[in-house]
Write a structure and sequence with these properties.
291 residues, mainly alpha, Rhomboid-like fold, 2 domains, two-stranded antiparallel ribbon, 2 strands, globular
């Protein structure tokens, strides 16, 4: 179901299939296109009409060179409804976990998150990659399995809706939000796992679903149950990462929902950059507390 206001806005639907909603625009004409109508271009995706125009403008030399080097035809591409970023996240997480299983492997030590390691004046080291690399490190087979199952279940619906780049940005910014929350609320707690980013995906799904008038009661129940589990003593779960990821993911979802139109693309990028800057600024607070 969608709200009447959402249904009246043609920018929310594929121009070739008006019954299919999408958040992806053709990089040339900026019209909304669904996964079936998307073809990968050098940067982003293009619609069928722009693809035909592009092919018509090819010179004989370009066509000959394409044949000579056995390049795949420009019309042949992976189906754009394939959540390739989701698959990539899952594959990388599994590979990292396998590397962790090697005896005396330093992978978890290299990639896990521990807030003091962000502050040279406090720990003597500066390792700014850890808020992101912690998303691919897990504490056990059930930990990685359940997190990747959640990524797969959410990503296969959310990634085609947002597009690959927006989806990846949502995942990483949510992970940063989780790290910021852990830093501010549990400074000396080591953290691993993708659950903060997973909660970010859920937060964005809640906001976007509410925006298009979808029934989000099921998502609310899932979020509520998982938040409560995080507060149970002895579970070893970082509720701070869950809350931080959820809040930041919801903010990113709100930005996507309110800057949907092609005229607001620049505003969307600026707001995302501003959100990242604000999160980084929050990481300065411990300097004043623990200095």
């Amino acid at each position: 179901m969608t709200s009447p206001e959402f249904a009246r806005n043609t920018d929310n639907f594929c121009y070739r299939h008006p019954d299919r909603q999408s958040f992806v625009l053709c990089q040339r004409c900026l019209r909304t296109i669904c996964p079936e109508c998307q073809t990968q271009a050098a940067v982003g995706v293009i619609c069928p009409e722009c693809l035909r125009d592009q092919q018509k403008s090819q010179t004989p030399a370009q066509v000959k060179a394409e044949r000579r080097w056995s390049r795949a035809p420009r019309t042949v591409a992976l189906s754009k409804d394939q959540p390739v970023v989701t698959y990539g996240i899952i594959a990388l997480s599994v590979l990292v976990y396998i590397a962790q299983l090697i005896p005396n492997s330093p992978v978890q030590q290299w990639l896990s998150f521990y807030a003091p390691w962000l502050y040279p004046s406090l720990s003597g080291t500066f390792e700014p990659w850890r808020p992101f690399t912690m998303l691919f490190v897990h504490g056990g087979v059930w930990h990685v399995g359940l997190n990747m199952l959640a990524v797969w279940m959410i990503g296969r619906s959310l990634e085609p809706l947002l597009g690959h780049i927006r989806y990846l940005a949502l995942y990483l910014i949510s992970g940063l939000g989780a790290a910021v929350a852990v830093t501010l609320l549990s400074f000396t707690t080591p953290v691993v796992g993708a659950s903060g980013a997973v909660f970010g995906l859920l937060g964005a799904l809640l906001v976007i679903g509410r925006h298009i008038g979808a029934n989000i009661s099921g998502i609310l129940i899932i979020v509520g149950i998982n938040l409560v589990i995080g507060f149970i003593p002895g579970m070893g779960i970082s509720w701070q990462a869950h809350v931080g990821g959820l809040a930041v993911g919801a903010l990113v979802g709100l930005i996507y929902a309110r800057t949907r139109t092609r005229q607001r693309r620049g505003l969307q990028i600026a707001l995302l950059i501003g959100l990242v800057v604000a999160l980084v600024a929050l990481l300065l607070i411990p300097l004043a507390i623990y200095a």
